[in-house]
């Protein structure tokens, strides 16, 4: 038994020895026997200083409870070992006591609001030291829990400091690598504390999405940390001091700071910030956590409300505002993200006790009209700034938890869902910008992409397109048509509000037609008692859809592909477009496209002809030239090609403005007739050139003499009178080229020379049996046509060609005559078997005729002087004027064969037959043709320069001049 008369110093040494060895029973006996020396504060300091931190609290908590109650009883089973005091004097004991350096119960940086209760000070500092020295954080609740009823401060400290750390490190995120002591944790400001506690929230990939992890962390980590009035008071003291002033600066600048709620404001800021980089975590936070009132204190609460009614109401409003802000901040435009926003809205609706919102799919199907928002000014463009920043500010109307804000967010959600589901991704923020800014360009851009997305659906059910139309119209005005206030035709209030309604309806119609919904389109837009579009707007949309189908066609066949779709569109609205100019043009376009499709036609290497090539071509008539080049003997189908060319004119392809639009007025018959004539001339000329390229001179010649004579015109449309006024103040406009194709084609035919590849004639008719002579005669006919049509600047070239032909013809005819004479000589009667005696020779009719032909040949044009030819060229324009004046001569010309018509417009003087059918001697065919060719030249050009024909042509020439004088 210990001596009751032990010196106080020795008693203290014994207590220190017992505490150091964990002898709680010995210490109990010492305290029971020496109460005056071992006062509770001294005992607590001894335990704090000497009791090992690894010593389990369960071994000394009963002693602490007895010490706190003052009812410590001695343990009779435990003896006090006094051997350590052997030989120790009192002075030495006092000296040792002074060297103990017992720790004070109130540590240096203890909170200013901590109670002065020694037990509370001991317990808190003991817990801190256990954590610092051993890290056995999970032992601290065993130490503190028995004394929670002793002090509310201790309860608050346990809940707000110990519980979050234990849960973070041992229960919620045991793999959390970042460790922090209680002392360091208690010194964190609000922002750093929130980010530390929630650093791993939503980051664990092993946790399934439906887990309650986010809500658990907010309830079990953040809720306890922000628990208690004492923490708020302590935070206020920290804010008012200079210690860590940056803690609340951002919130103060935002205008939302109240030191009492600063911690919760940081939580709301964390949730909204999380929406930007992990929207799923933010949505689950709103969905799994009911706000500041939803906390898990681990069962350590005392049953009293820790938030008064005013605080609860304020924090709920802030929580709802943060939830609305989260909805606007979700950056992903997926169906899953929008479904998360829908869950947020459902939570807010439940919190505000509003009518339930159906599922997102049901809401998009019902398309309930959105109540008017104009009176509340929610649709003001000024609110667009709140979409980007300041989501938690009090003046942000979009995130204020009111019914109108919920209606707006619901409208934006359904709008974004409709767009995203169709294939045009859209976020809540993007939908808000379209609605609030009302930028027509932006709305039209999104609208066009949406229509393209709908068009790619490739649905064949009319119900799909009916629903699509309802959705698009709802997106424009959010169902305002169904409300009493209605909406204007030019402006709505939805995300397509700036687009005129007739524009939207027209685009919907085009989409119907593009996807072959002809019956549905006609029932809505043509047969409806109240059609959505005016007649002109409807026609414009129909023709636009038809042209779009045509331009996208890859096959020119009218019974397949885009060309067929174009035709079907035109046939679907008979009451609307029948008889209109554009329908006639499109019909002509389809007809010529189909006919071109029957031929092989390639524009570039490996690029086959498509219908749009025809419509946008700068010179569509030239396409026929490509067809002739790429299809063997296609030139024989001249009638088909002429018909195609005329269809091109009727389709408005040949006369366009700078924008490529047809400006041909079909009511102006003069212009239309001129364009049709030009097309025919060009195409016939192309066929002539193609025939020559294929060495089919006979076909080319037939086109020259049978077609050009009827359609060809002069190369210049200027009369001689007008040409005289080409200088001075009243100078005339230079002549306009009217027909620059016919004379060229005739000239090319006239220049053609027979070769081994030339196609042989199938029949000769009444022409010479000499193929060379026949060919030269045909060439001269072609040159005569060219001479009649060509401009005066090209006469020399044509005359040179004609001269060469004439020379060759003379040579051929001379050779033929020599051969005839040779045969005649061989057939003389003296050499005939059984012949009689020689009789006086008698000239044959052939020789007589031949001699007379040579003697009476007209003076050749080329025997004239060079100056005479020059005079003929200079006076050629006067000849054209004479032709225009002489109407009677024109009639005479029509009765004369084409190859006999001179450039003057009157029948050329030709050699008169010396004998008639009544008995006068006739001239052989070759002589006739020769005289015709030479006579054509002499009568036309030779007449102008004053060349006099020979006697046998005098009568014809005289008659010809008499006609002119008449």
Structural key phrases:
mainly alpha; 966 residues; two-stranded antiparallel sheet; disordered C terminus
* Largest β-sheet summary: 2 strands, antiparallel
- Could you tell me the radius of gyration in angstroms? 56 Å
> Roughly what percent helix?
55-70%
- Strand order in the sheet with the most strands: 1-2
In terms of DSSP E residues, the strand content is under 5%
According to DSSP, the number of beta strands is 2
What structural category characterises the helix and strand content?
mainly alpha
Low-confidence segments, given as residue ranges, are 229-257, 717-732, 843-926, 942-947, 950-966
Put simply, the count of helices is 43
Distance between the termini: 173 Å
Tell me, what's the shape?
elongated
Mean pLDDT level: 80
What does this structure look like?
The chain is mostly helical and 966 residues long. Among the domains are: 599-694, no CATH class; 695-718 and 730-821, no CATH class; 856-965, no CATH class. Helix content is 57%, strand content 1%. The protein has a two-stranded antiparallel sheet with strand order 1-2. Helix 1 (8-21) crosses helix 3 (40-50). The longest helix is centred in the C-terminal third of the chain and has 32 residues, at 795-826. The radius of gyration is 56 Å and the shape is elongated.
